[in-house]
Amino acid sequence: MPRLPSAASTDDPLSLLVAPPPDEDPVAREARLRSEMEARRISDQIDEELAQERLAARRGPRPIKLLLLGQSESGKSTTLKNFQLMASPKAFRTERVIWRAVIQLNVVRSIHLILNTISDARLLQKTTRSPSHTPSPSYGSRPTSPTVADLTSEHARLQLSLSPLVRVEEALVRKLQLSAGQPALDAGVAKEVALNSTSGWKGNFVGRVLARRSGEGGDEDDGIDWDDPNDPGRVINACGEDMMRLWEDPVVRELLDRAGVRLREMSGFFLDDLDRVTSLRYVPTDDDIMRARIKTLGVSEHRFKLSSSSNVLSRDWVIFDVGGHRSLRAAWVPYFDDMNAIIFLAPISCFDQTLEEDEKVNRLEDSVLLWRSIVSNRLLTKTNMVLFLNKCDILKEKLGAGVPFAKYITSYGKRPNTFDATSSYLKRKFQATFVDHSPEPRPFFCHLTSVTDTKQMSHILLDVSEFVLRENLSRSALV
Ligand SMILES: Nc1nc2c(ncn2[C@@H]2O[C@H](COP(=O)(O)OP(=O)(O)OP(=O)(O)O)[C@@H](O)[C@H]2O)c(=O)[nH]1
Ligand SMILES: [Mg+2]
């Protein structure tokens, strides 16, 4: 068995070097022992100082922790994207390759919705012609559209020419879900593609793209391999003109209206940008990335440093993004402990919509109830609350198009159907809930937002960050 040399071992070069001289007299010996003791004292002192420094660095200024809450599609992940853009625009833009795939998926999903609506209408037309017809439950008691009869062979041609998009959709879903380490679902089965953000799908995706790029010498700037023969962008580009024809067709628009399919209000709507988005060399802009939609599963944690000219914000921040679907809300609770602030998003344009999870529940009502349960939660008594009354751009459009707010929110009564009046009314309602249900008095901090508007958000997020830091400082001064 091999033996380690002992301290006194004469063949250990280090022992030989530090050993006292064989002829050392008592005075020399005492001087040597004194200087060895002093050296040990200094060494111990240095060790102690290093240990203290390590401890202080570990304790550091604690990062500010921020949790994003709200129902599904309220704009949480979009708010996170704005924070990421503010903290590090360069890192944010390295992810354009992923968002390109997400936007392509959003586009082909919208086209499929249109094609399915046409197929349903044709089916309905056939069954209404048959003598034994009873109204289809999916169309309810809606009268048969006179425009169904206007569907021509050109529509049939478009349906056929756009059929390759089914495979493109499947390929995109597989690509994104495999990056997320999730089993790939059949694109037709999954109502909406959702990704488990805890598994770092963006990192996997970018990593694979970068690895392939370095192997094949692709484009250096945006991570997109323009020479990839399997790039879904090629089929999308080949179908581009027919997609535009389909979307701009008046008969198709009429069918969508009658079927209640309001594509412009849906998440991930890019059909008004088909010209650009289906071009062969399409690279998403920052604004496109804000509008791209992928549903969040699980909870993801994002760390970054914010800085400002005044250096007020130079702190580490950790932001937690969660899935807002009803089935995912129980996963929020473990994160309530030790949070400095919550940004709660309530999409106020949804006053005339119901939850995807439960079609009997009005979306705005769900937001108010959710807000009440968050502000009254005792675990969050010391947590600062920031409220974003979001999707103001869509609210303005809806009210401008004449959708009556009071029809859905009956307590609104006879007030004017304008953006100023409805948003002020909702702000008062949310504030009253906050004041009545908070266990302790807290400042009410609210913004009217359109979180897809990066310019507006850069100001709002600075304001929010300063508020959170200020409140955090005054709280720690009280402790
Ligand atoms: N026009 C407009 N669209 C918005 C706004 N806020 C969010 N969106 C869009 O709405 C969709 C849903 O937003 P997300 O940020 O993904 O919603 P979320 O709260 O993270 O949803 P879950 O992950 O399902 O919980 C995205 O396509 C966004 O681009 C807004 O203020 N205006
Ligand atoms: Mg999300």
Protein architecture, described:
The protein is of the alpha/beta class and 479 residues long. It folds into two domains: 63-90 and 298-478, P-loop containing nucleotide triphosphate hydrolases (Rossmann fold), CATH 3.40.50.300; 95-291, no CATH class. 50% of the residues lie in helices and 10% in strands. It contains 17 helices and eight strands. The longest helix has 34 residues, at 26-59. The protein binds guanosine-5'-triphosphate and magnesium ion. Guanosine-5'-triphosphate (GTP) is lined by residues 70, 72-78, 267-268, 290-291, 293, 295-296, 323-325, 390-391, 393-394, 450-452. Residues 76-77, 296, 321 line the site of magnesium ion. This is G-alpha-domain-containing protein.
Describe the secondary structure blueprint for this structure.
Layout: H1 13-18, H2 26-59, E1 64-69, H3 76-87, H4 89-94, H5 96-129, H6 153-161, H7 165-179, E2 194-196, H8 201-216, H9 232-248, H10 250-258, H11 274-277, H12 286-291, E3 295-297, E4 299-306, E5 315-322, E6 341-347, H13 363-375, E7 384-390, H14 392-400, H15 405-408, H16 419-437, E8 445-448, H17 454-478
Parallel strand pairs: 1-5, 1-6, 2-3, 6-7, 7-8
Antiparallel strand pairs: 4-5
Helix pairs in contact: 3-17, 5-7, 5-9, 7-8, 7-9, 13-16
Magnesium ion binds at residues 76-77, 296, 321.
